[in-house]
Amino acid sequence: MRTLFHLPISPYCRKIRLVLGEKRLPFEAIVERVWEERPEFLAMNPAGEVPVLVEDNGLIVPDSHVICEYLEEAYSDTPLLGRTLAERVEVRRLVAWFDGHFADEVTNRFIGERVMKRLSGRGNPDGTVLREGYAAMKPNLKYVNHLAENRTWLAGNFLSLADFAAAAHLSCLDFIGDIDWSRVPAVRDWYARMKSRPCFRPLLSDRVSGITPPDYYANLDF
Amino acid sequence: MRTLFHLPISPYCRKIRLVLGEKRLPFEAIVERVWEERPEFLAMNPAGEVPVLVEDNGLIVPDSHVICEYLEEAYSDTPLLGRTLAERVEVRRLVAWFDGHFADEVTNRFIGERVMKRLSGRGNPDGTVLREGYAAMKPNLKYVNHLAENRTWLAGNFLSLADFAAAAHLSCLDFIGDIDWSRVPAVRDWYARMKSRPCFRPLLSDRVSGITPPDYYANLDF
Questions:
Q1: Range list of β-strands (E), chain A
Q2: Cβ–Cβ contact B144 with A under 8 A
Q3: E-strand spans in chain B?
Q4: Per-residue pLDDT reduced to its tens digit, A14-35
Q5: Residue of A nearest to B57 (CA)
Q6: Which segments constitute the GST C-terminal domain (chains A, B) (predicted)?
Q7: Could you say which of A60, A92, A100 has the minimum Cβ distance to residue B47?
Q8: Residue A208 reports pLDDT greater than 90
Q9: So what's the pLDDT on residue A209?
Q10: Which end of chain B is flanked by fewer CB atoms within 10 Å, N or C?
Q11: Does A108 reach chain B within 8 Å, measured CB to CB?
């Protein structure tokens, strides 16, 4: 059975779970507590990070970007990168924006302080980091709202990896209750459409010890 | 004329300069002082980072990973990602390892403290960060040495994007004189082969105000 080593509240892992679901590729998800630095896991991925996908034929594919490019080449029935060169640049640009810029400024601050510190026993959230995260969230979500207002899907008129990358980040932030949806109505409408896709269901039933998501987290009419 | 907005001592920009050179795609390189947040530049790349490639047809391609995938699809004469799915996973895995893990632990610490702080007028290098960088450099270069000892090129028996990503990081560290080559002889032999490629020449003549590279930086028999 195809196996995904992951952490539930990681945007990079959630992106892969969504993409595998969208491409209808069945997999077993195994939680990997990366901070324990398990030698068998480090042998699979010297970078020591999740996600890592292991195919039935034994091929080990680490890193969410590497996994996405691999899945696109290996299973091209449900293409998620666009057709033309310009479309593919725009999809990959937005994925890089969410996984790089948005992660640095927003997601990693909240997930690092509120989730990873708790899970790995590294103390309490640092209020300064969270305040920086809130300050950065406003202009960044405004940019996403601008995209959602002007396009059917985030990268254009087709559903793409950009939507799954974005939904992965926002769903992590929503899990810990940190998004004020009333400020970004176009993002909320787009996210409601994403949330109602079958591939999203497993994410909505994620539970993490010690963290209770808000009631509307799993609600499709939030 | 194809244009690359870049910074000379950025591993991500150097990777693109090497790849453009290897693929024999002429370009004009323009230094972009990203910390000045020039509005015209932010309009091209909302992430505000270099490299950004602008093609003759007006297509704007930001982000080193996006540029590499784009160049591979648009100019496939000199393929740099490998042929089989497994080869492509290994090439991309190593690129992600250098641009993610190695950058976080090593390159960004040195470049951030010794180069970016000076260029953007943000004070003196933080000794603690540099010490962390030196401590992390040893095990990381040991892993690269292991690859160089056991393979013709870093990802296998073919020259690939992994070699250019690696050479980009090591050439930045070499520019500021922070690599003890005697500890990693296999890396030195591999780097000497990389350095002698025509695409490398422009990097060896880079000069940055206030930073003098060591004498051996531009020497092919270092």
A1: 3-6, 28-31, 52-54, 60-62
A2: no
A3: 3-6, 28-31, 52-54, 60-62
A4: 999 999 999 999 999 999 999 9
A5: A86
A6: 84-214
A7: A100
A8: no
A9: 83
A10: N
A11: no
CB contact under 8 A, A65 and B97: no
Distance CA B35, CA B6 (A): 12
Chain B residue with CA closest to A52: the answer is B93
How confident is residue B177, by pLDDT bands cut at 50, 70 and 90? confident
Domain spanning B85-198, CATH architecture: Up-down Bundle (1.20)
Specify the long-range contacts of residues B89-93, CB closer than 8 Å, at least 24 apart. Answer: B89/A59, B89/A60, B89/A61, B89/A66, B89/A70, B90/B155, B90/B156, B90/B162, B91/B155, B91/B160, B91/B161, B91/B162, B92/A63, B92/A65, B92/A66, B92/A69, B92/A70, B92/B161, B93/A61, B93/A62, B93/A63, B93/A66
**How is the beta sheet containing A60-62 ordered, strand by strand?**
A28-31, A3-6, A52-54, A60-62
A36 Cβ neighbours under 8 A, 6+ residues apart? none
For residues B11-34, give the mean pLDDT. Answer: 98
**Residue spans of alpha helices (H) in A176-218:** 185-195, 201-204
Between chains, do B74 and A92 touch, taking CB under 8 Å as contact? no
Instruction: Give per-residue pLDDT as tens, B75-91.
Output: 999 999 999 999 999 99
pLDDT at A221: 81
Say which residue the tokens 């073919």 belong to: B158
Q: Whose CA is closest to A136, among A167, A108, A114?
A: A108
Categorize the per-residue pLDDT at A213 as very low, low, confident or very high, splitting at 50, 70 and 90.
very high
Is-contact A190 A141, C-beta < 8 A?
A: no
Q: Cα distance from A101 to chain B (closest Cα, Å)?
A: 6
Domain boundaries, chain B: 85-198
